[in-house]
Amino acid sequence: MEDEILEIAPEARVPAGDDSAGFWKKLKRGLFMTHTEIVEKMSAALTGKAVLDEATLEYLEEVLIQADLGVDTALELIERLRRNALKEQAASVESLRKMLSDEVADLLQAAPRPRTFGQGPMLTLVVGVNGVGKTTSIAKLARREQLRGEKVLLAAADTFRAAAIEQLALWGERLGIEVVRQGQGADPGAVVYDAIHAARARKVGQLFVDTAGRLHTKDHLMAELSKVRRVIDREAPEWQKRTLLVLDATTGQNALAQAKTFSQVAAVDGVLLAKLDGTAKGGMAVAIARELKLPVLYLGVGEKADDLIDFRPREFASALLG
Ligand code: GDP
After folding, report:
1. What distance in angstroms lies between residue 45's CA and the mean position of ligand 1's atoms?
2. How far is the CA of 101 from the centre of ligand 1 (A)?
3. Residue-by-residue pLDDT tens, the chain, 322 positions
4. Would you give the DSSP letter of residue 115?
5. Are strands 308-310 and 296-300 parallel, antiparallel or unpaired?
6. Full-prediction pTM beyond 0.90?
7. Which atom of ligand 1 is nearest to the CA of 308?
């Protein structure tokens, strides 16, 4: 990790998500590669065309599939476009972008909504394969709650890798947030037990639990996560609980496969899509929401603690295509 991660941009000093200028800047940065790729191909396909012919529509379908929006979603979008475009006789890039952006927003609005939570302390179990950006994402979430004035605690329950514990501890130090940890190889259930009791004693409002993300076998993963989950259910009955899956947007179809596996072994409440800024396949957020029926809650758009934004369907569609 580099030192510049330490820097907290001025816009992060107000709660993330409430700062609309900062939000748009980050969203556009996150979708820059995907947006550029789609729009450039779209422009090239439409140059010199007065009407939207069938060959162009088929090419556009391919462009959307390549941006990882999902095959079913791409087909549906092109079908909607076919109906609308014929009606409007539109072949300009601007009108097409506007139409597509509206259609994507509609599809996303119809996707499953995140669960709502009431008052009271919240425990977030963070799951995901090693290397997807789990530790960094936990730091970002913690930072955001800290800026909202919440008391935050982190639990290093990925006890397989010493590096994972160290990394989380380092973030804790940087952000001034306590990290409950034990040595490598310790029982993750014991770490979670300690963390819940420490959180209760210190009146913590937000507890984030890092978990091991080894995907050797599904059974292994399930056993590991259920062990942690059992301790949580027993020790924190009064807490609100959610399971957040971190996926790496740069891994494309692999991330979708991981989402399927994790949904089978744990009740995933939502997805944090990390490294959106490093890929031209950012359409994956649409595929996750629509085809896997998992609510996308957050987007990771950089390596710094404040590079996290909420997933908002209409704004996402607009930054993707508009
Ligand atoms: P973990 O093994 O899943 O805990 O992954 P880490 O949190 O250690 O992250 C792996 C790498 O991805 C690190 O170099 C992070 O700085 C980087 N990373 C994490 N999230 C993002 C993001 O949203 N954007 C970019 N560009 N890099 C990220």
Report:
1. 35
2. 29
3. 433 333 334 333 344 445 677 999 999 999 999 999 999 998 998 887 777 888 889 999 999 999 999 999 999 999 998 887 666 665 678 888 888 999 999 999 888 888 888 888 999 999 999 999 999 999 999 999 999 999 999 999 999 889 999 999 999 999 999 999 999 999 999 999 999 999 999 999 999 999 988 766 778 888 889 999 999 999 999 999 999 999 999 998 899 999 999 998 889 999 999 999 999 999 999 999 998 999 999 999 999 999 999 999 999 999 999 8
4. P
5. antiparallel
6. yes
7. 23
Is the same domain home to 221 and 103? no
Instruction: Tell which of 81, 110, 139 closes a domain.
Output: 110
| Residue matched to tokens 């930054």 | 319
Q: What is the CATH number of the domain that holds 52?
A: 1.20.120.140
Distance between Cα 53 and ligand 1 center (Å): 42
Question: CB-based contacts of 121: which residues, under 8 Å, 6+ apart?
Answer: 199, 204, 205, 206, 207, 238, 239, 240
| 3-state SS assignment for residue 218 | helix
- Domain membership of residue 9 (yes or no) is no
Q: How far is the CA of 301 from the centre of ligand 1 (A)?
A: 10
Residue 63: inside a domain, yes or no? yes
Q: How many domains does the chain have?
A: 2
Task: Name the residue with the closest Cα to ligand 1, atom 10.
Answer: 133
Q: Are the C-beta atoms of 318 and 155 separated by less than 8 Å?
A: no
- Ligand 1 nearest-atom number relative to CA 164: 4
Q: Same structural domain for residues 126 and 252?
A: yes
Q: Which atom of ligand 1 is nearest to the CA of 138?
A: 7
| Amino acid at position 262, single letter | F
- Taking the CA of residue 213 as reference, the ligand 1 atom at the shortest distance is 3
Please identify, among 268, 287, 316, the residue that sits at the C-terminal boundary of a domain: 268
Beta bridge partners of residue 207, listed in sequence order:
123, 153
Residue found under tokens 């997807």: 132
The residue to mutate among 26, 129, 136, 276, having the most atoms of ligand 1 within 8 angstroms of its beta carbon, is 136
Domain of residue 39 covers 28-110
12 occurs within a structural domain: no
Asked whether residue 192 is assigned to any structural domain, the reply reads yes
Pocket of ligand 1 (CB under 6 A): 130-136, 167, 274-275, 277-278, 300-303, 307
